[in-house]
Amino acid sequence: MNIETARPIGWRSIGGYGGPYLINYGLRGVSEIASRVKIPISAVLGVWEWENIVRYIIVGATTVQSATTVIMQGYNVVKKWLNGILNWMEKKGYESINDFKGLALKNILRTKDVERAPERG
To answer: What SS3 class is residue 85?
Structure first.
């Protein structure tokens, strides 16, 4: 998810095998739920950098969890994330997370709407 344009990156691709590469699975899940129901959603999976937190929020997450990254990088990573998010919000002119929460939903195709290639034997 591109945080500048709120548009998906790699429409037909999904993440890798572990760690931060799994974020695309989480983004897909959050966006699918957020596009259907209006409940608070807590995202978790593949959060390594502050941009990943923004990605989750623009696809509809209310909160974002990442215990593994805090354990691996230490508590100072939370301050780094907060500074990154606040600087980005200032640059974009956002005063609140609610200003960009769910912003990308209009740009994402739901799984049922994605054209699939025919199966081949």
So the answer is: helix
| Cα(24)–Cα(46) distance, integer angstroms | 8
| DSSP code string of 14-79 | ---SSGGGGHHHHHHHHHHHHTT--S--EEESS--SHHHHHHHHHTT-SEEE-HHHHHHH-THHHH
Note whether 101 and 58 are within 8 A (CB): yes
User: Residues 44-83: pLDDT tens digits?
Assistant: 888 999 999 999 999 999 999 988 888 888 999 999 999 9
pLDDT digits (tens, 9 = 90+) for 14-43: 443 456 778 888 999 999 999 889 899 999
Q: Cα(46)–Cα(52) distance, rounded to whole angstroms?
A: 8
With the C-alpha atoms ordered 102, 6, 66, 20, is the resulting torsion angle positive or negative? positive
